[in-house]
Amino acid sequence: MKSSDTEHYYAMIMAGGGGTRLWPLSRQTRPKQMLSLFDDRTLFQTSVQRLTGLFPPERIYVVTVKDQAAELHAQAPEIPAENFLPEPQPRGTASVVGLAAVAIRQRDPQAVMAVLTSDHFIGNEELFRSLLKSAFDLAMEGYLVTLGIEPTFPATGFGYVQRGELLGTYRQLPAYRVKRFKEKPNEDQARAMLAAGDHSWNSGMFVWRVDHILAEFKHQMPELAAALAQIEPTWGTPLRMDALERVWPGLKTETIDYGIMENASQVAVIPASGLGWNDVGSWDSLFEVLPGDENGNIIMGGEHVGLDTQKSLVYMSQEHRLIVTIGVEDLVVVDTGDVLLVCHKDQAQRVRQVVNQLKQQGKNYL
Amino acid sequence: MKSSDTEHYYAMIMAGGGGTRLWPLSRQTRPKQMLSLFDDRTLFQTSVQRLTGLFPPERIYVVTVKDQAAELHAQAPEIPAENFLPEPQPRGTASVVGLAAVAIRQRDPQAVMAVLTSDHFIGNEELFRSLLKSAFDLAMEGYLVTLGIEPTFPATGFGYVQRGELLGTYRQLPAYRVKRFKEKPNEDQARAMLAAGDHSWNSGMFVWRVDHILAEFKHQMPELAAALAQIEPTWGTPLRMDALERVWPGLKTETIDYGIMENASQVAVIPASGLGWNDVGSWDSLFEVLPGDENGNIIMGGEHVGLDTQKSLVYMSQEHRLIVTIGVEDLVVVDTGDVLLVCHKDQAQRVRQVVNQLKQQGKNYL
């Protein structure tokens, strides 16, 4: 990158999720991005440190929910406090991107921003940085760029992006015009897209010029754009939180994919393969990311004795506690002290159902 | 029973086991007979209370290991303290029976004693009491009586007793001469015995005249008889513990079955069916005794949420803790705070293997 360009490059990390998909480890007050699953860093810290060399900390923004801002700042103290943007209430990724975009434009009208996730695993960080650089190049040419992930199975839990014409090669990575966004498909549709070979998973990571995305907001989501216009002038003044809290509750909850990307023009995708990307969307996804022992078991914490135990995951948050497994296969055992989850690997997605049930019954453990 | 007979009737409960078959709930210091599995009474308490109406408490003896005597007395305070006979070290059931026999003979030379277990489940207590009465009648006639259990499957974990000629009917229960004792068989042998229809499981419960069994000891186990002869005169004197502790370490460890019953003459069996007897010998045995819910699950303690959970047992020693099971079948989950066991029902016997492994490694949790 030329320094004249890169000094306008910003990153915005979405860290507002209250995900319950790794429940009972993830909780309302300890969402997935605050967990340390792969090393002693939280997923959020890894997401920040992955950007080293691409953005100085003062050009990294974090959008999160109010309650979590202080904790996230403690985890990444190199990022200035004013770069943590607190959502008063969750209103979907469209609102979040819009808020960051106006905050960044207010500071740098020529800004180009990356929208990044805080709770995914990326195995090949070098490739990730290359991909981001290519995406910035493409965004500078006026595209809304989405980072695509090469699909490895007919996932029904992700959105898909269909490639159109080849736009060119950016730092050795081919970029394509986006033909179509497809929200979470059913299994048949997923199989067909995988077979067609011209679809990527939608990673939820994007790069675009701030003026460009805000023009799209004005065009496609005029109500949100109007709300943001009320907030923008207060930015950097003591009135900012007042404005946010006045405007935010009235916003419609919408995703950036549905609200903007599906109908935007000039949308491009750079498909990434070999990124080692994983959304860590449920306990079974850890088997794709973490190396198992000789029996395919993943043992995290605690003391474990296994007889005839295969392809199972054991997570134990307490020390000085013994877990014994005998004659089990494809089992997930997660013990957080107050909750014990014992779940067949193939049904790990149903953890959400339990969380919803507990919520409805007004129970604790959430 | 004529009161003239019954005043010579005694019961001896063997409560010395340090069983680990229900580990991690049963421990060295909390053997199976001290657990409350079926109601708020311990198995030992149930074993004592089952005798109500048959023996006054002062004619109930309990043989146990030294460390557990105080706790057992606390659980059955109606039994006089001097009736708790402490084994200095475990030396098998032959020594235990011999000790109780000399203690009882010292008090009542005409005594007839029942040898009973402390850690089994008996569903039909009325029938059990009838069976005991029949066995006392038969013992009065000079038989060593064993209580047989009608086998319901080809168990390899129990000894068997083969019936010979019918000796008569005692209070409507037929009694047979014992043709043969067979120690724990292999699976083929077990199937053959079940098919033959003339075998009972050896319940480990016996009734005999004290003078009769002690004569057998003198004949078949002269060393043990000699050792007991050293202890007997000290009984009821302050020297009793000294004598016990001097003599006991030199005893050979032997079972009453192998040491006496297999080669005794005048051995009879009263086969019991419908007793609802269960040795509670491993976690899976609880499924035979405890009623499951509509999915065949047995939930003991804790708060449980199950999705797609069948024929599983969940035991939780702590309150205020949630167990969630999803997509599991035939699973045993036992949480005792310091240990969590997750085990396929069919492999519940292997808990012993884990205990042995921990023992060898000098670990705690035993």
Based on the model shown, name its key terms.
homodimer; 366 residues; alpha/beta; Spore Coat Polysaccharide Biosynthesis Protein SpsA, Chain A; 2 domains; five-stranded mixed beta barrel; four-stranded mixed β-sheet; 12 helices; 17 strands; 28% strand; globular
Q: Which architecture name of the largest domain in chain A does CATH use?
A: Alpha-Beta Complex
- Helix amount of chain A: 25-40%
The main β sheet of chain A shows up as: 5 strands, mixed, barrel
Strand content of chain A: 25-35%
What is the subunit arrangement here? homodimer
- What is the CATH homology-level superfamily of the largest domain in chain A? Spore Coat Polysaccharide Biosynthesis Protein SpsA, Chain A
Query: What is the number of helical segments of chain A per DSSP (H or I, 4+ residues)?
Result: 12
The CATH topology of the largest domain in chain A: Spore Coat Polysaccharide Biosynthesis Protein SpsA, Chain A
| Strands of chain A, count | 17
Summarize this structure briefly.
The structure is a homodimer of 366-residue chains. Helix content of chain A is 29%, strand content 28%.
Describe the structure in your own words.
2 copies of one chain form a homodimer. By secondary structure, the first copy, chain A, is α/β, with parallel strands linked by helices. The first copy, chain A, has 2 domains: 3-278, Spore Coat Polysaccharide Biosynthesis Protein SpsA, Chain A; 283-360, no CATH class. Chain A has 12 helices and 17 strands. In chain A, the strands form 4 sheets. The first copy, chain A, has a 5-stranded mixed beta barrel. A 4-stranded mixed sheet of chain A has the order 12-14-16-17, with no helix packed on it. In chain A, helix 4 (92-107) crosses helix 8 and helix 8 packs antiparallel against helix 9 (240-247). Chain A is globular and about 60 Å long. The first copy, chain A, starts with a helix and ends in a 6-residue tail after the last helix. The mean pLDDT of chain A is 94. The interface between A and B is large, with 36 and 36 residues. Strand 17 of chain A pairs parallel with strand 15 (322-329) of chain B, so a sheet runs across the interface.
